[in-house]
Structures are given as structure tokens and as C-alpha cells.
Amino acid sequence: MELIVTPGGNCRCVYSEDLDLSVIGKLSIQRGSHVEPDQNGQWMADLSPVGGPSLGPFANRSEALRAEVAWLHQHWLQPAPAEAFKTD
Fold first, then answer.
1. Which contiguous run of DSSP H or E holds residue 57?
2. Cβ-based neighbours of 12, under 8 Å, separated by 6 or more
3. Which of 40, 56, 68, 72 lies 20 to 30 angstroms, CA to CA, from 32?
């Protein structure tokens, strides 16, 4: 599991039950996407909750979930640019 810690002390991650995150503090879990079948039975990963695209269609749910997690890791779960850490 990758955890991104912001300069303000908040953490961001793609949630899983690999670690008991409650040991690091109060949790606020928010949905990063919606993986649902469309009207044709194809699976779509809608990443609009984090400002992302809609991915798919996929033949099965597990493919959509893998694409969802890959997109989140590549585009959303990134450290802030170095400029964000500069202080005057």
C-alpha cells in the first residue's frame, strides 16, 4: 500500500485492508470511483469523483477494478510537486 503524506500531515491512499489505517489517526474515507456495469452489461470505471475520466468498457468487473486502481496510482496517488514543500 502506498501512502502519500501531505505537508499538513494528512495521508492519501487507495484504500485496502492490508493495513489498519485507524492506528495512524482519524479516518475520512471518500469514494474515488464508481465501477458499475453499463446498460449493455459491460463494466465501466468512472473516476469523476477524483476528477478523472471514465474507463472502459471492460468485459468483466475484475478488469475494470484493475484499470481503476492503475489509473489512481498513476494519476491521483502522486506526491505534490516539490514547489508545494517550499517555505519562505
1. strand 54-58
2. 3, 4, 6, 77
3. 40
User: Is 57 buried (19+), middle (13-18) or exposed (0-12) by CB count in 10 A?
Assistant: middle
Please provide residue 48's backbone torsions phi and psi, each rounded to the nearest 5 degrees.
-60, -30
Asked if residues 5 and 31 have their Cβ atoms less than 8 Å apart, the reply is no
Residue in the structure block whose three cell numbers are 469514494: 31
pLDDT in tens, 43-88: 999 999 999 999 999 999 999 999 999 999 999 998 766 544 445 5
Q: Structure pTM?
A: 0.80
For residue 74 the three cell numbers come to 498513476
